[in-house]
Amino acid sequence: MPDLKDGESAQVQGSARAPYILKNVGGVYSCTCPAWRNQSVSIERRTCKHIRSYRGEQAERDRLGSLAPAATTPTKEGKDTAPKLLLAHPWENDTDLTGWWMSEKLDGVRAWWDGRQFLSRLGNVYHAPDWFVAGLPNVPLDGELWLDRKAFQRAVSIVRRQDKSDHWREIKYVLFDAPGVSGPFEERQKALSEMIQQQRPEYAKVLDQVRCTSIDALKVELARVESLGGEGLMLRQPGSQYEAGRSTTLFKVKTFHDAEGKVMEHLPGKGRHAGRLGAVVVELPDGQTFSVGTGFSDAQRQNPPAIGSTITYRYQEMTDRGVPRFPSFVRLRTDVVPLKVKATVPSPTRSKQVQPKPKPIETAMKRYFAFVEGSSAKFWEISQNGKDVTVRFGKIGTNGQTQTKTLADADAATKHAEKLIKEKLGKGYQEQPAS
Description:
alpha+beta, D-amino Acid Aminotransferase, Chain A, domain 1, CATH 2.40.50.140, seven-stranded mixed sheet, 9 helices
């Protein structure tokens, strides 16, 4: 049977008109079909009929079987061995970070070194080769098993293997704290640097920390890191102790994007929100739905945005299945006409009835997609304004070509736009923040 080498891709014809794209990145096989994207298991354990057909049933059984259970081995004590990690809160512009210690947020695999082995957040062992851990001190260390920016999937596929392969030579253990050293953050950093300088482990290094001089400087550094493909920044409070759990002495800072969506349903709250709004179900232009449950005031939970109304929400990035990650309510759009959608009443369980799909409203929409693979770097942008659907496409960095089509009405224009978007997603294009 054929197979894909690391970094290769192939097209296969499925039920859609456009072919699906198969890829192999560090032993993680992916497919652009909905069946692969919408699975709830980790990416390295996903498969689909297109991958099985291309590689062969036995090859896929062998690959997935080698990953069980989740390619890690629990320690004997199980959950009791899970390290007590210091965890960050997302920064929401409500704390002045001037004077805090600033470093890049690495898109790698969090790993606790207990003096003899690497442990995951859940207390599972990462089976690093002996030559990789040579020189690491026999004291607890906190860091990230990191490969490179935009290389998270490959890093995961390497560190979760159990064969202690030479692929680990691509990985660095980037250290940002020494939990076993008592004292404030600055003293722990000094001790950490001295340990690494003395023992000189080949595959470990200390993450650079610089003072944040102002919020403007933070924004400049964030833009620089993100322009290089980085995930964001981490800010640590001067003089802070290492404490288990989420702490306001540590913030993660990312760029947030704003977008609009239609409210399709109200979900009932639980716990302290019992008896009022828990979340709203929002629909994207392509018909996918997701829930927004944070950002609401108590008053808004008592009197939530009406079903059919348009809200602005804020999110960090898009998930693999194309919906916003960590969405948060920002405001109700009062400059558009609410849709006439039958209201749903919050109940102890979410209604399984299919809600009627509302007719689109005549408001402007713009979405931007990119396809980057090998020497190919293309963009495709689509916008709708009433009955008009406009697409702009070409090489990234150029103005490209523009084409406009006028449909019979806004409803027909929306359907046409959704059809074009699905075709592009099927060809491997990924949505980006609109320009």
